[in-house]
Amino acid sequence: MSPLPGVRLNLADIERIAPLEEGSLPYNLAETQKHTQADGSRPIWLQVAESAYRFTLGSIAGATGATAVYPIDLVKTRMQNQRSTGSFVGELMYKNSFDCAKKVLRYEGFFGFYRGLVPQLIGVAPEKAIKLTVNDFVRDKFTNNNDNTIPLFAEILAGGCAGGSQVIFTNPLEIVKIRLQVAGEITTGPRVSALSVVRDLGFFGLYKGAKACFLRDIPFSAIYFPAYAHIKTQLTDEQGRLGPLQLLTAGAIAGIPAASLVTPADVIKTRLQVAARAGQTTYSGVVDCFRKILREEGFRALWKGAGARMCRSSPQFGVTLVTYELLQRWFYVDFGGHRPAGSEPTPKSRISELPPINADHVGGYRLAAATFAGVENKFGLHLPKFKSSGVVSIHPSEAAKPAQAP
Q1: Distances in whole angstroms, Cα of residue 169 to Cα of each of 38, 158, 213, 246, 381
Q2: Which residue positions does the secretion signal occupy (predicted)?
């Protein structure tokens, strides 16, 4: 092993030359080395292509999730818009979410649950796409390339940025959707369409209630995405993989606290975006709406539709995220970035903790791993597909020389 006569290297020498890095198994050395390169080493066009790829898959996932839970969303909207004062003549009143669903089915039929779905799908595709893309983009910037970890503050920041970025699409979408959803409550009167709503509101009117939308979407995403990521790590199998059921479960569980805690902001947004009817209270802004709801209806009114909102948001984001991650697996394109957690093997057990496979296997896997882990870095060997990671190799003859006194 050494060009010097009589000098031999043993495992202890190799360990001193380059200490064993846990998890650097032979089958993933090349992949590990590739990911340790700085993200900035990737050309801009490749990063743009990756964002476009994620945007496309996010659009499909968002439309799938929205369609799956749209009936629940319609019930939630009608419950939140129901006032205790100034009921309009001919308006259907609901005792609770189940009563609302029963009356929609009785008076409007099955397709009444999907009133306003088409404009919802037109808007929800880019809305969810930009949300998922921005979250992934910011997370990638803060992810440690060595161990694929990300600090909690960065997860919260990524989620908040994702929530804020979607409002440009969310607000016009929400105001059109809400006005179409509540239009079915009036049994008489002219038919309301998406075009008529847009024509009546104008461009700037489509952003009515945007402040409340920010107050809802930023905290929601700041809570949801970190919770989703941490729940996923708890549901992985021994090989670090996640199946569709685990992804769906993680997405659904994460949606419960996120949806419930921002319900007051959602109620205020709904009240601001729905056109007030004769005899109903009108609001001039977020603060005015908050005060009047408290004064006229009490604190509990701010939590109207919380149950329906959780029942809608939890499965919606579960379906959206499982669709998004499965699409990335089925139509995988290697852009040199980070893959979603659970999509590739990342064994939970550290190699040094594995027991010997037989009595002759002295020292367990730690000594064996020291021979293999990082071989291409320790001795200056690099696979041709990947660039050098900048690690300076030490020649065995140099390791055999006695250390000089300082």
Answers
A1: 33, 18, 11, 30, 50
A2: none
Over its C-alpha atoms, the chain yields an Rg (Å, rounded) of 28
Residue 61: strand, helix, or coil: helix
Nearest to 321 by CA among 256, 249, 257, 222: 249
As a whole number of angstroms, the distance between CA 80 and CA 97 comes to 10
Q: Are 53 and 333 in contact (CB under 8 A)?
A: yes
Question: How deeply is 333 buried, as exposed, middle or buried, from its count of CB atoms within 10 A (0-12, 13-18, 19+)?
Answer: exposed
Q: How many CA atoms lie within 13 A of 353 on its CB side?
A: 6
Task: Name the residue type at position 304.
Answer: K
Backbone angles phi, psi at 151, to 5 degrees: -65, 155
Distance CA 254, CA 224 (A): 6
| Dihedral sign for Cα atoms in the order 328, 332, 336, 340 | positive
Cα distance between residue 219 and residue 364, in whole Å: 48
Question: Using one digit for the tens of pLDDT, what is the confidence trace for 99-145?
Answer: 888 888 888 888 888 887 877 787 777 888 888 889 988 998 888 87
Q: Is 18 helix (H, G, I), strand (E, B) or coil?
A: coil
Token pair recorded at residue 156 = 């919260």
Structure pTM? 0.63
The greatest distance separating any two alpha carbons of the chain, rounded to the nearest whole angstrom, comes to 103
Q: How far apart are CA 80 and CA 266, in angstroms?
A: 9
User: H-type helices in 143-285, by residue range?
Assistant: 152-165, 167-183, 194-205, 210-235, 244-261, 263-273
Q: Residue type at 313?
A: S
Closest to 317 (Cα-Cα) out of 50, 154, 73, 88: 73
DSSP characters over 160-200: HHHHHHTHHHHHHHHHHHHHHHHHTTBSSSPPP-HHHHHHH
How do residues 209-238 score in pLDDT, each as one tens digit? 788 888 888 999 999 999 998 998 888 877
Asked if residues 8 and 1 have their Cβ atoms less than 8 Å apart, the reply is yes
What are the structural domains of the chain?
42-330 (1.50.40.10)
Q: What is the pLDDT of residues 251-300, one digit of tens each?
A: 889 988 888 898 888 888 888 877 666 667 777 788 888 888 888 888 88
